[in-house]
Amino acid sequence: xxxxxxxxxxxxxxxxxxxxxxxxxxxxxxxxxxxxxxxxxxxxxxxxxxxxxxxxxxxxxxxxxxxxxxxxxxxxxxxxxxxxxxxxxxxxxxxxxxxxxxxxxxxxxxxxxxxxxxxxxxxxxxxxxxxxxxxxxxxxxxxxxxxxxxxxxxxxxxxxxxxxxxxxxxxxxxxxxxxxxxxxxxxxxxxxxxxxxxxxxxxxxxxxxxxxxxxxxxxxxxxxxxxxxxxxxxxxxxxxxxxxxxxxxxxxxxxxxxxxxxxxxxxxxxxxxxxxxxxxxxxxxxxxxx
Length: 290
Ligand code: NAD
Fold this sequence. Notes:
Blueprint: E1 2-6, H1 12-21, E2 25-29, E3 40-41, H2 45-49, E4 54-57, H3 62-72, E5 81-84, H4 90-102, E6 106-109, E7 112-113, H5 115-121, E8 124-130, H6 132-145, E9 146-153, H7 157-185, H8 190-197, H9 205-208, H10 232-249, H11 254-269, H12 280-285
Parallel strand pairs: 1-2, 1-4, 2-3, 4-5, 5-6, 8-9
Antiparallel strand pairs: 6-8, 7-8
Helix pairs in contact: 1-5, 3-4, 7-10, 7-11, 10-11
This protein binds nicotinamide-adenine-dinucleotide.
């Protein structure tokens, strides 16, 4: 397939590399001038999109996605598909899809989970919004870049699934960390805490698969000095998007709102920036009730 790839950062570059390794013809563009071995380099986003059957974007946020879409949609071939894999707000995803449809183009929002490791290994999970037809076009590419692609419904639903999942993740990670900190103060060993909770009703992915306490449970960023992993600032971004969506949809999300406040303080006022999001545990450990 002839593919345009716009945004070759931490995630985009390894995703593009996997498509090239699978034999696809990739033309890449990134404002930072980054290139990927084996990809043709375009001088602009529009040039990368010209003549492509699928144009993939992997960009920082919704405002940049809207700008790039405004530039590339007029350049795209009739019937081509814009496949946005960035994590952006639901409204931007839906606005871009509407503009694409008006131009006779397909559009999918397909944010990912799995991080940089998953991008490199080709084991991402894609949460996809858009038409069946566009999904079918992109499916072979999902199969190369990822291990799973879930079609969640019409445009915007991929982003909706992503931010709802990550709102649960942020809240459960905080709950797991504050419970560990309490258990420590009550004299419970971390091993006992893990053994009980991981097999009781408090279990979750945060406890069982990504335990925030070092030396306990499976290997996780806690065992590596809280080097990300999934950085606290990325969790902050996703919690911000979920609150933005909750506001727009008039949904009551008090735990998500509190998780956003805590991660904002952790990243902006404390030492959370550049640390894994599970480093909330040493944060709680260091604090008392006030
Ligand atoms: P990144 O900052 O490393 O990459 C973004 C790239 O986009 C940069 O190289 C930047 O130069 C480029 N860019 C910015 N504006 C551009 C423009 N107008 N035209 C062309 N290129 C432009 O970020 P990343 O970690 O690769 O994340 C990309 C997206 O994936 C984000 O939306 C992020 O939330 C999401 N995501 C990241 C992870 C992760 O672990 N890093 C996990 C899941 C989802």
